[in-house]
Each structure stands twice: as C-alpha cells, then as structure tokens.
Amino acid sequence: MARHRRPGRARPRARAASVLAPAGAVALAALGAAPVAAAAPATASPSCTDTADVCVDLSEHRAWLVQDGRATSAPMPITSGIPEDPTPTGTTTVQRKERHHVSKESGRDTPMPYSIFFDDEGRAFHTGSTTRPSHGCIHLDPADARAVFGTLEPGDEVQIRR
Catalytic residues per the record (predicted)? Predict the structure, then answer.
C-alpha cells in the first residue's frame, strides 16, 4: 500500500546509515554473513509504528522524523502543552502547513513560523521555545522546525506518545 508520498519524492535518510551501509554490505559479503538487513538497526524512534512519518515522545521531550520505523533525523528537543492545555497523544495526520502562520488565540498576534497543523483544534509543530511549555502545540527550535516543515506533507502520519 502506498504511503503519503509524492511520486519521485525521496525522504532524507540519516547520514550515518547512507555512509555506513555500503561498507557494511561489503564487509558482510566478504565474510559470507547474513544479509545487510540482519545488521544492527539504525536508531529506532521510541514506541512508534513503522507507518509514522514523525514520532513524538512527550515524556522524553524529543521528536524524530521517521520512515519505516527508523529515525531519519537526530532526536529533536521539543516542548509540549501545559497540564491545563496538554498536547494530545495518539495517531493523526498532517492537515496543512503554513510557513508564516500568526495565531490570534491568545487575543494578540502570536507568530508561529513553520506551522504544521496536526489536529482540528489548531495544534501544530512550529518554531517556539524549547524551554517553556506551549498551549498544546509542539515547539521546535528554528532549524528543526524548518527541517520538519520541509519534510512533512499533508496526509503524513503523526504519532505522539507519552
């Protein structure tokens, strides 16, 4: 079954995996060992299924871009919702993206750059403080927010775990 990818759109792979895999394949072939798939797996994302495109672990305050159950990015520090307005857990999909979104929820204009909305309540991944909690959104530092924005597309699967 096809995943939520545009035809011809390649997902970025973890650099170490792309650099080390050929050498590992040569070494395994030379030794007559098991296929490359039996080699040590790439860094796995925490408790998300292999259908996730992004995996969030609220208890670890980290998120990963993932493909086929394996991390394709380094762990990204995040902050999430306050107890009175928590970030929901579960599986959802990317609904829309807005590069220059401005929220009016708090009665004032609040910039939310690189917003990737994942629920009907206006919660999103976006650039924000990774030291202060949010009102249900997932804050990423600017470089990570750009990377997530550039990678995820509407329909991609979001898994949020505690």
Answer: 126 (proton donor/acceptor), 137 (nucleophile)
